[in-house]
Amino acid sequence: MIQLFHVTKYYDGCLALSDISLRIEKGECVLLTGPSGAGKTTLLKLIFGAEHPDEGQILVQNRNIARLGGSDVPYHRRTMGYVLQDFKLLPQRTVSENVALPLIIRGLSSFESRRKVLEALRAVGMDHKLSSIASVLSAGEQQRVCIARAIVNSPIILLADEPTGNLDPQLTTEIAALFKAINTRGTTVMMATHNRQVVEQLNGRILRLDCGHLVSDQGVYT
Amino acid sequence: MKRLWYFIREAYTSLRTHRTSTLIGVITTAFTLTSFGIFLLLYHNVHNLLGQVQHTIQIIVYPKNDIESGKLHDLQQGLKTDPAVDSLTFISKQDALTEFKEQFPEEVYLLEGLGESPFPASLILTMAAKSPTTDMIGNLVNRLQHHPDIDRVRYNRDWIERLTLIIAYMEFGALLVGSILALASVTIIAITVQLAFHTRQQEIEILRLIGATSLFISIPYLIEGAILGAAGGGMALGFLRGGFELFTQNTQGLNVFGGFSSALEFFPLPLSLILIAGGILLGCLGTVTTIYGSLRFRL
Q1: Which residues 193-212 of B have a C-beta within 8 angstroms of A?
Q2: With contacts defined as CB-CB under 8 Å, which chain A residues touch B208?
Q3: What residues pair up with B63 in beta bridges, in sequence order?
Q4: How far apart are CA A73 and CA B168, in angstroms?
Q5: In this complex, do B216 and A105 lie within 8 Å of one another by their Cβ atoms?
Q6: How many C-beta atoms lie closer than 10 Å to residue B13's C-beta?
Q7: Which uninterrupted H or E stretch holds B20?
Q8: Are strands B58-63 and B122-127 parallel, antiparallel or unpaired?
Q9: What residues 138-197 of chain A have any CB closer than 8 A to a CB of chain B?
Q10: Contacts of B198 (CB under 8 A, 6+ apart)
């Protein structure tokens, strides 16, 4: 599903990731842990196609991300969902409009779009807030809408960068449960988190990064 | 369909959100297109007027005195099919004599005893209104002068050249003024769209996050630019029409332009539509300039 071969990344000469090699299988739940600045976000960005590696190769579904042209990146992104800590919702749009956005981009029909939006919102328990404006939702609700938007296209891979960073423990438990449920349905989940509670709850494969180095992995691919 | 609706709604939302900058963009576009339109209107009318004046220009061709009737007929047919020629009138030697007698009845005694008409036969050519350029007329005259059956050709070369030169200057002026104003308009629209673009950076970031292509992100802005340009063009057309009506009403009867003001005409429909299309084009150009610079990737 995802393979990294000796990936190294620098930002303005500073090392962000060093010689990372790993393999993630379909349906795995991978938790990226480590202190701030360890390279967790960089690793997710590289897989997402938001950054290019300075050295090494990245294969996602047998496609070499390191060689993707600028015009190919959007199509690569459509195969995966991305959930961020700061939600990134359109505040003046309704919940359904926000969730429908990836489907509009793909050019789905209105009927199909409505069906998928409802399905995604039901999966995160937000189908009763279909017409609510995003900005009036609570933080937990906004994150649920973000997850719905990320899974509405039925992605094979779901990336999440500190999705519970802005949430209280109760909401964190709920959101972690959602990711667990999504993973159980067969979606590969890769989440960067500091939160021990989330790590324990998801009970996935733990990759620990420190200063750009992969310091521990239950199954390092060589 | 859902995509199209999305694009239109996004463009409309942006225009509504940035009312002030939208209004400034429309007004400045209207102003620049009005300035250009005034020049275009002037050019259009002068061109029309010169066409009419040139239509009255005549080239007089004198065939050789001993030309056979068959060759004269061929010569006439050849001239009639020339694109620069609008009409051809043949004046025979006898017609010329009759004309002289009618115009100068007191001088008729001068011709007594000459027997045959002393006046040469001639062909009078009037020029087609839409094609009298110096080149076309010059070429025609040159061909006629070297024609074996033609004795001589008479026409007012200076007058034709001067008229053509005026048209050429006006065309150059229109191009120059138009280019400068178009550049100004593109800049203004680019700034307006850029404003909308910067205030929606977060939205663009979200769109990129969920796999929107640059083209998908750009389309609402292109629509926005096109609407700005079209509104500016429409407003300019309104200003021009109003100004034109006011001008013709105030100058009618005063004979300040030697009666020419009554012959003035506003843009025909195709030209009016071209002005609006020009506005749309400027709007889109302004948007493309902004987007190309801001997205930093190809459309």
Answers
A1: 202-203, 205-212
A2: 74, 77
A3: B150
A4: 52
A5: yes
A6: 16
A7: helix B19-55
A8: antiparallel
A9: 149
A10: B294
Domains of chain B: 2-52+162-295 (no CATH), 58-155 (3.30.70.3040)
Across the interface, of B6, B206, B213, the residue whose CB is closest to A104 is B6
Measured between alpha carbons, how far is B293 from B48 in angstroms, rounded to an integer? 43
Is the Cβ pair B2, A113 closer than 8 Å?
yes
Name, in order, each residue with C-beta under 8 angstroms of B79's C-beta and a sequence gap of 6 or more.
B61, B85, B88, B123, B125
Beta bridge partners of A55: A8
Tokens of B226: 């096109």
Q: CB-side exposure of A63: number of CA atoms within 13 Å?
A: 14
Name residue, tokens 């009737």. B69
- Which tens digit of pLDDT belongs to each residue from A203-212? 899 999 999 9
At what angle are helices A95-106 and A139-151 packed, to 10 degrees? Answer: 20
Return the structure tokens found at B13: 């939302």
ipTM of the complex: 0.86
- Which residues are registered as beta bridge partners of A216? A208
- In chain B, the N- to C-terminal Cα span, in Å, equals 21
Q: Please give the pLDDT value at position B253.
A: 65
> Which residue type sits at B282?
L
pTM of the predicted model as reported, rounded to 2 decimal places:
0.67
Report pLDDT digits (tens) over B87-107: 888 888 888 888 888 888 877
Nearest CA in chain B to A158: B210
Cβ-Cβ pairs closer than 8 A, A with B, add up to: 55
